[in-house]
Automatic annotation (TrEMBL):
It comes from the Bacteria. Signal peptide: none annotated. Residues 23-273 form the EAL domain. It comes from Yoonia ponticola. This is Diguanylate cyclase (GGDEF)-like protein.
Length: 275
């Protein structure tokens, strides 16, 4: 009937209103969390396969929420990206990661730090300003800082992007392509942009051995452009064995360690003990 149609429309509008309201509350809560310093980093080791040494760590952000406990990035990064709050959050992450790298360097510990940079953060101005500022800190190990960007960062004006990447590399930082093979389909950027590292997406690793030819292709491609290949999401001994046999020398994954708080970071794994 007409009546129930109208009821339904009202219901939907209320429902949408409720979602809008919920969304605004979450946004405000993130903003509050940023102001209250509730965002922290966990670190996942990147392991050099032949000897089991941790060569670097990937910084992964978490929200230590006062009421809701530890919140994972998939629950707030997309909202931060949409609203632009990622510029502020990204700055916080960069600050913590870079300060940690400096602390390690000052302690004589040779440890790299990889930091995820979102598309909007890459386009913004805060990132370049922060990177420039850090290079002025005495003893700052800029060559130990790697920025992980996904292929969708590379959408847009290739000349501008190449220029920015070049500037970052000239400052002494490193660039990694994250989730390689899952996004942008035109691979020409691989030889056009300065890239130090290619991270093989975990979806390929988890599909071994069927995905073997694709991983071999990426390993060859990486070698040709002089980039280090890193396999992500290594969970099993079989994956580990396959990658080692194919000459992939850097790996990350639960098989070695989940991302952990700084104080639980193990910096070396006895490869011979991993069976
Ligand atoms: P990502 O950059 O691809 O990071 C890898 C994700 O895979 C992490 O999830 C990590 O915990 C998870 N992972 C690591 N090893 C394994 C494994 O063996 N198996 C499986 N199944 N997963 C594994 P996390 O920490 O939840 O982060 C999710 C995504 O959120 C990241 O994906 C990244 O895109 C984004 N992210 C995290 N921290 C930041 C940040 O500081 N800034 C930005 N812009 N994005 C971030
Ligand atoms: Ca990453
Ligand atoms: Ca990844
Ligand atoms: Ca698997």
């Amino acid at each position: 009937s007409k009546q129930s149609g109208r009821d339904q429309a009202t219901y939907f509008n209320e429902e949408i209103g409720a979602i809008d309201k919920e969304r605004r509350l979450i946004e405000a809560d993130i903003r509050r969390g940023i102001a209250q310093n509730e965002f922290i980093l966990h670190y996942q080791p990147r392991v050099h396969l032949p000897n089991g040494q941790t060569v670097s760590v990937e910084a992964l952000v978490r929200w230590e929420h006062p009421d809701r406990g530890l919140i994972m990035p998939d629950n707030f990064i997309p909202i931060c990206e949409e609203t632009g709050m990622i510029e502020d959050l990204g700055k916080i992450v960069l600050d913590i990661g870079c300060k940690q790298a400096l602390a390690w360097a000052n302690a004589g510990i040779d440890m790299g730090v990889s930091i995820n940079i979102s598309p909007r953060q890459f386009q913004g101005t805060q990132l370049m300003d922060a990177l420039k500022a850090f290079t002025k800190t005495p003893g700052f190990p800029r060559h130990k800082i790697e920025l992980e960007i996904t292929e969708n960062v590379l959408f847009g004006d290739h000349n501008k992007i190449a220029e920015k990447l070049q500037e970052i590399v000239e400052m002494g930082y490193r660039i990694a392509i994250d989730d390689f093979g899952t996004g942008y389909s035109n691979l020409s950027y691989i030889s056009r942009f300065p890239l130090n590292c290619i991270k093989i997406d975990k979806s390929f690793v988890s599909q071994l051995p069927e995905s073997g030819p694709i991983i071999q292709l990426i390993l060859t491609l990486a070698k040709q452009v002089g980039a280090t290949a890193v396999a992500e999401g290594v969970e099993t001994q079989a994956e580990y064995d396959w990658l080692l046999a194919e000459g992939c020398t850097q790996v990350q994954g639960y098989y070695f360690s989940k991302p952990v708080p700084l104080l639980r970071l193990q910096t070396s794994f006895d490869a011979s003990a991993i069976k």
